[in-house]
Amino acid sequence: MNQKLECAAFVGVDWGDQEHALCVLTPDGRAIHQGMLKQKPEEIAAWVAQLRARFGQRPVAICLEQSRGALMYALMQYEFLILCPINPAQLAAYRKALYPSGAKNDPGDAELAARFVREHMDRLRVWQPDDENSRALRMLSEQRRQWVEQRVALENQLRQRLKETYPKALELFRGDLHAEAYLAFLAKFPTLAELRRASPRQLAQYLPKLRRQPDGPSLEQLQLERVQAIRQAMPLTKDRAILEHARLVIVHAVAQIRSLNQAIAECEQKIDEFFAQHPDRDLYTSLPGAGSALAPRMAGALGTDREKFQSAEEIQQMTGIAPVTRSSGKTKVVQMRWACPKYLRQTFHEFARCSARSSAWAAAYVEMRRAAGTPLQVIIRGLAFKWQRIIFRCWKDRQPYDEQRYLRRLRAARSQLLPFLPPKLAETP
User: What is this structure's pTM?
Assistant: First the structure.
């Protein structure tokens, strides 16, 4: 949390798609302006100029319910504005506490946001822009994940249509449906009827290459057998309504998957370019199991501002890896933290899982917790919790991770992990 700042005014914004409700408060809590601001660059710039003229270069705190988006991007360029993004659930709980009836309107929410930041600014995290490389990596990595999820959904839809009307296509290929060879085949032959009409030359061009076994038939014989099997293949159904619907879905799903393949490839290229220029690249590539996908994601998550996090606990809480404790009287419950950026939590969760295949002590940790009967997902979160302590120290010191150094510390501390490590690593050299 930040120290109490001396601000000339406090602004609450109730964000909208086309226009935003505004409320400006003085430090003593008096409302001096309420109105609407259109989402237009010229009007936003004119409004900020009015704030600058009225309050000079003194800080003005702005509370809004988003950490990215059109308005956030427009305001982040002005150095005298202190941006305090909050979770919409925070403002909703604040409104419910003051107005239990459930009454709500945009100007009222803007005033609540202004009062919230005025009264609780010392408990809010002031937005500080990361360097361009880190921000680009964060946005590009998240966009890539969204496109991959869309592609997976389309693949599942495509596979289901093939199962229902065209199972022969699933027999002829093995591997991912988003592979270009598979997509080219389905684009050329979207139905079994069209496949059966194909010439042997077309089939040889679009189908996987055959391989001859040392004591098996010749390639010519194998190709002849495959052509005959396709000619004799029976359709699963002859219902025209089902077949026409499936063909339409297959043709357009293939086109969409191809488009997503291109978008993902271009996104990965941009990620590689920005990550190559990132000052902490060596740190993240040294982490076992990070690879080319997770290393840029973690670099984008932490950024390069070493003052943003003062302890590993802040990272653990911000990413949702640290649990939440609820205690009342004799009751105490420790549960997963839900109020967090889900993508960041997923990033460190996935890294922890991958690290167990590349790091000796991480694998030993998983084995030790499994022997105690702990569920796998709880184990992975616990492993991510440990990794974030290590990553925070490396990040603060600007030093790459050293597995051998960490193993020496485990041996010196007589860690509980030692019995689960390979003997040559558990013994002191």
Answer: 0.79
